Amino acid sequence: MTTDVTIIGAGLGGLILARVLHLHGIPATVHEAETAPTARAQGGMLDIHDHNGRAALRAAGLTAEFRRLILPGRQALRLLDRDGTVLFEEPDDGAGGRPEVQRGELRRMLLDSLPAGAVRWGRKATGVRSLGEGRHEVTFADGSTVATGLLVGADGAWSRVRPLLSDAAPRYFGRSFVETYLYDCDTRHPAAAKAVGGGSMLALAPGKGIQAHRESGATLHTYVALTETQDWFAAVDFTDPAAAMARIAGEFEGWAPELTALITDSDTAPVLRPLNTLPVGHRWDRVPGVTLVGDAAHLSAPDGEGANLAMLDGAELGEALAAHPDDVEAALTAYEHAMFDRSAETAVDGARLHALMFGDDAPHGLITAFRG
Predict the structure, then answer these.
(1) pLDDT tens profile 45-100
(2) Whole-prediction pTM value?
(3) Integer Cα distance of 320 and 323 in angstroms
(4) How far apart are CA 357 and CA 206, in angstroms?
(5) Which of 58, 191, 44, 167 has the alpha carbon at shortest distance from 106?
(6) Of 67, 134, 235, 270, which residue is least crowded by CB atoms under 10 Å?
(7) Which residues does 281 contact at the CB level (< 8 Å), separation at least 6?
C-alpha cells in the first residue's frame, strides 16, 4: 500500500489503527491536539470485552501486554438501594470476560507499541477540505497543513473530519454525569469504600444514580447521573466546588450517607460531563479517501461499549487496508459496512440499558436483567 495514512486523534481507536497498520508494514501518522501523553487525565476504568476490545488487542498483537494491566477483583459488581442495602451482588471470580484496566495505562501501552515519531503532539486540527481525487488537506491550529491520500477521523464527539462525510452533529441526550474522586479511600473514606466494595457499585433510582468504581491506588471514581436539562445544569455554579457538590447532593436527599459522601467528600472539584449522542444508525455515503472510527462515527450514551467499539473499529479498518493494499476504497467499503451495522445495534442496546438503569422501574428492571 503506497497511500499515506493520516489519523486525527490519539485515542484508543486511532492508536489501535496505527498499531495494526504498523504490524502490516503500512506507515501512518497520528496527529493529536494534546501537547503530550500526560497533558490531561485519561479517564477511569474500562472493562474490555472479549468480543470487541480484546479481539482488537489480539489483532494488534498486544494480548500479553494487556494482561499485565488487568486489575484483579475489579469485575465485582453490586447494586445498592438508596438506603445502602445490597440488592444484587456478583463477585469477581477471575473467570469473567470483561477484565478491568485503567484507560490511561491502556493508552500508554498502545503508544509504546508504535515506532518513534508515529504520534505528533500539539497538532490540533482546526479544519479539513477536499483536494479532489480522494485527497484531503488538514489545517492545524499553528497554521501548518498536511495533505493525505487517506484521512481517518479518530477525533471523538466533536470531530473536525466528520463534516466531510456527514452533516450530523451530537445532540444532548437529556442526562449528564458529574464526576468526583475520593483518594486513599480505605483510610480517609472507609464508609464509602465499604459501600463500593472491590469493584463497581450502582445505586440507582428513576432519573438518577450514583455509580462508583474502585480504581488502582485506593481511589473511588464516581459518576453521579442526573436526568436534567442543560439549563438546569447551567444554573449550578461549578466554579464554586462546595456549592456545586451541595446542589448535586441535594438531589439525593434521604440517601445513605456513605453514598452521598461520594459526592460531598470529593477530593477534587466536581466536573460536569454532559452526555451527547449522534443519531442511532448514523451512516454516510462512501466518500473517497476518508472515514471515521469510534465516537467520531457513532457517538452514543456511555454503556461500557464505547472504548471497545473504537478499538474494534481501528483494528478492523487496519486489517481491511492490509487485505486490500491496492484498493483503498474496497477496504473502506468493507470496513464501513460492518461498522455501521455493529454500531447501530450497540446504540439500541445502550439506550435499552439506560432505560433499565434510570427508567421508572429502576433499579429493579436492571436487577431482573442481570438475574435473567
Answers:
(1) 899 999 999 999 999 999 999 999 999 889 899 999 999 999 999 998 776 678 89
(2) 0.95
(3) 5
(4) 8
(5) 44
(6) 235
(7) 340, 344, 347
